[in-house]
Amino acid sequence: MASGTHYWQVLQDGRLDGLEMRMLLCFVTGVTRTTLAAWPERVLGTEELVRLEALVGRRVAGEPMAYLIGRREFFGREFSVDRRVLIPRPETELLVELALERLPPQGRVLDLGTGSGVIAVSLACERPDLQVDATDVCAQALEVARGNAQQLGARVRFHESDWLSGLTAGERFDLIVSNPPYITANDPHLQNGDLRFEPLTALTDHADGLSALRTIIAGAPLHLASDAWLLLEHGYDQAQAVRALLSEAGLTGVQSWTDLAGIERVSGGRGPSFSD
Ligand code: GLN
Q: What is the block-wise mean pLDDT of the chain (276 residues), using blocks of 10 residues?
């Protein structure tokens, strides 16, 4: 694109799909879609053009839109994302909905492997009465999560921890939730599309896809309050295996829930009842 390029000319550039080009144009110019539509004759500044060209090049090379514009919507809110964290997926909203339905007033909830923080921050925003804790093994991811909590005014306590290992013994929660890495090490999807640009350790356990889920299921019961739920997101073909692991760990009421695509995407169960 040459200097003197008008907005309307950018939108006719054939390298990207129209919607994506519009998003990038709005991003570099800082104007809204409405302004864009109202002022198609406007000309991009030289600097804007340089930035736009760079972004278009990265998009053509396959980089996800969410990383290019640094944002992704989740559960009705805008989150900052970059290559330090997994891009939030719409199916993970199911996990948030199921957690909200089960959390008692002033309940304590723990999000394991929080990444960008979308689950923990959404829960804290929806329900300011909750006490929300979140862990991640990756300090860089926690920086992103903390930034999101701050931007959205969410009260979340973040902890650097390898799953449950950093928790205080005897600390118990009214609900534990997690969207761990569950893609198998040799899954060809890891070499395709957006996934190529995402942090590998947020996607795969570098094993059979169930090892993080096993670790969480083994450790969670010691940190569940009486009758408290453990809710886990997993892969499209893992529901049966995860239900078996939950039952073996002594959880009750074990079941799975389907996402909007009709795929069993979340499984969970309740910890033991304490008769105190
Ligand atoms: N749902 C993601 C995908 O299939 C994977 C996220 C994860 O491993 N937790 O791309």
A: 92 94 97 94 96 97 98 98 98 98 98 98 98 98 98 98 94 98 97 96 97 98 97 98 98 97 97 83
CA of residue 91 to ligand 1 center, whole Å: 9
Ligand 1 center–CA 184 separation, angstroms: 10
Residue 13 burial class via C-beta count within 10 angstroms: exposed 0-12, middle 13-18, buried 19 and up: middle
Q: Is 258 helix (H, G, I), strand (E, B) or coil?
A: strand
Exposed e or buried b for every residue in 242-254, given b needs 16+ CB within 10 A? Answer: bbebbeebebeeb
Query: Which residue out of 72, 74, 86 has the highest number of ligand 1 atoms within 8 Å of its CB and is therefore the one to mutate?
Result: 86
- What was the pLDDT predicted at 276? 58
Structure tokens at 71: 């944002």
Ligand 1 centroid to residue 129 C-alpha, Å: 29
